[in-house]
Design goal:
Blueprint (H helix, E strand, L loop, with lengths): L7 H9 L4 E5 L3 H10 L3 E4 L3 H4 L11 H12 L6 E5 L9 H13 L5 E3 L7 H9 L4 E6 L5 H4 L9 H17 L3 E5 L3 H10 L4 E4 L7 E4 L1 H4 L17 H18 L10
Parallel strand pairs: 1-2, 1-8, 2-3, 3-4, 4-5, 5-6, 6-7, 7-8
């Protein structure tokens, strides 16, 4: 496995050579180190920390300080992967000045190498300004979880012609604004393919079909550590939640029965 440091330039080369890009989420040093050593290309410090780690129903309550904290934990662990810090709700929508200040915090305090923000054409001026300031930006279109209260559901987006065209325009706008990549979430596979072919930058799909330049999943979903709900686009590669519960039950039983600690665990 190559240990070439992943940069935005390397990602562009990967798209040009049709080499698929792997992305997973991390929120702490230990998990980030495991992902990095396994060869994952992009480690996303997602605002999904709100649902996965904080037990929230949505991501909108995650704060900027929390994202800086989790990003700093992750960035110290990653040697090869590109670290992307998610910009939480209302950290960039109010003004370009807010976006500059908060994106700068993720890089300066959090150690991120890039940031991700949600929105398409309406966010293009903000993306362009951040890029002009030297901050690499990953876009996020299709289903945008920070807008869940506006959408009213987590249903797939882009299923009718008007919305398909709007999302395609969002992708082109982000491309033109200078985003180095974009996440496309929960759209028909045909639209995922169309977007991938329409833009120059890598397209990372999540529920957007197999033709995107890469894929992203929430690590706790694919490892079976999060069970409150299971999106259709998730493939479970392990059931660690069940394994952990079994191990904890065995430990508790040994303590109750007085078989732990034994001679080998005593001084």
């Amino acid at each position: 496995m190559t240990r070439t440091k992943i940069t935005t330039a390397v990602l562009r080369e990967m798209k040009a050579h049709h080499e698929r890009i792997t992305t997973l989420t991390a929120y702490d040093h230990n998990f980030a180190q495991l992902l990095d050593e396994a060869g994952i290309d992009i480690v996303l410090v997602g605002d999904s920390v709100g649902t996965v780690m904080q037990g929230r129903a949505a991501t909108v309550s995650v704060t900027m300080d929390q994202m800086v904290y989790h990003t700093e934990l992750v960035s110290r662990a990653c040697k090869r992967a590109l670290v992307v810090g998610d910009m939480p709700f209302l950290s960039y929508q109010v003004s370009i000045e807010d976006a500059m200040r908060n994106a700068g915090r993720l890089l300066k305090e959090g150690g991120a190498e890039s940031v991700k923000l949600e929105g398409g054409a309406s966010m293009a001026p903000t993306v362009a300004r951040l890029v002009d300031a030297g901050i690499p930006v990953m876009g996020h279109i299709g289903l945008t979880p920070q807008s869940i209260h506006q959408f009213g559901s987590y249903r797939a987006r882009g299923q009718d012609e008007a919305e398909r065209l709007r999302i395609l325009d969002d992708a082109r706008s982000l491309d033109q604004a200078g985003a180095f990549a974009m996440v496309v979430e929960k759209v028909p596979a045909s639209l995922g393919k169309e977007i991938t072919e329409a833009v120059k930058v890598p397209v990372i799909g999540i529920g957007a079909g197999p033709d995107c330049d890469g894929q992203v999943l929430v690590t706790h979903d694919m490892l079976g550590l999060f069970s409150r709900f299971r999106p259709r686009f998730v493939r479970r590669y392990a059931e660690l939640g069940r394994l952990i519960q079994s191990a904890v039950q065995s430990y508790a039983e040994d303590v109750k029965q007085g078989t732990f600690p034994g001679p080998d665990e005593s001084y």
